[in-house]
Amino acid sequence: MGNKEFSKEISPDGNDRLRIKISITKGAITDIVVQYESRIMDKWHPIVRYDCSHGFFHRDILHPKGETTKQAIPIQNLKDALTYAEQDIKDRWEWYKERFKKGMKK
Questions:
Q1: pLDDT tens, position by position, for the chain (106 residues)?
Q2: Which terminus of the chain has fewer Cβ atoms in its 10 Å neighbourhood, N or C?
Q3: Is the dihedral of CA 46, 48, 50, 55 positive or negative?
Q4: Which helix (DSSP H) or strand (DSSP E) does residue 31 occupy?
């Protein structure tokens, strides 16, 4: 029971990581946060976050200027949602990073 929080490096150079926070009550997952962060120009930037705040599972695409694009994901089971979020970031972190970096130039 309680919270588990950990990070995983996802790039060989250590400049990209996945931070995961899981809340568990009576053996069931009750909340998740999965966030992809990248170190760009010696500063860590959150780039993509999956969570259940606002009462539904969704993905936040974070932009360099502070804007956020929210996309609802129709998955109710939080165990499945956790798997989906982690796999999406592992599969597409390089694409997310390039998109973020392009936004820094505008």
A1: 689 998 999 999 999 999 999 999 998 999 999 999 999 999 999 999 999 988 899 999 999 999 999 999 999 999 999 999 999 999 999 999 999 999 998 6
A2: C
A3: positive
A4: strand 28-40
Residue type, 31: D
Q: How far is CA 91 from CA 9, 45, 86, 98, in A?
A: 14, 19, 9, 14
Angstrom distance (rounded) from CA 47 to CA 36: 6
User: Both tokens of residue 61?
Assistant: 């695409």
pTM score: 0.92
Domain ranges of the chain: 2-105
C-beta separation of 90 from 13 below 8 A: no
Q: Where are the alpha helices (DSSP H) in the chain?
A: 78-105
